[in-house]
Amino acid sequence: MKLQVNEGPVDRVARVAAGIALLALALLGVIASPLSWIAGAIGAILVATGASGFCPIYAILGISTCPLRR
To answer: SS3 of 53, please?
Structure first.
């Protein structure tokens, strides 16, 4: 099953950057221990959705930041 890209390039870069930042903060112990698991999970999700270009929440809500192809 191929997922349709629903994230534009700016959205994808922002997600990957934010995800890497959250993962780094969690892994380096900057965020307190119970919250580090949550931050790490959110960071991983952001990196995965940014890398794939597909956001399931966008799909459910019918949102797309991907520019239309002409």
So the answer is: coil
pLDDT in tens, 37-48: 999 999 999 999
3-class DSSP string for the chain: CCCCCCCCHHHHHHHHHHHHHHHHHHHCCCCCHHHHHHHHHHHHHHHHHHHHCCCHHHHHHCCCCCCCCC
Distance CA 23, CA 1 (A): 29
Per the domain annotation, does 26 fall within a domain?
yes
**What is the number of other CB atoms lying within 10 angstroms of the CB of residue 57?**
9
Asked if the structure places residue 15 within a domain, the reply is yes
- Considering the domain boundaries, does residue 34 fall inside one? yes
The rounded distance, in Å, linking the Cα atoms of 8 and 20 is: 18
Q: Per-residue pLDDT averaged across 55-69, rounded?
A: 88
Q: Does the residue 67 lie in any domain?
A: no
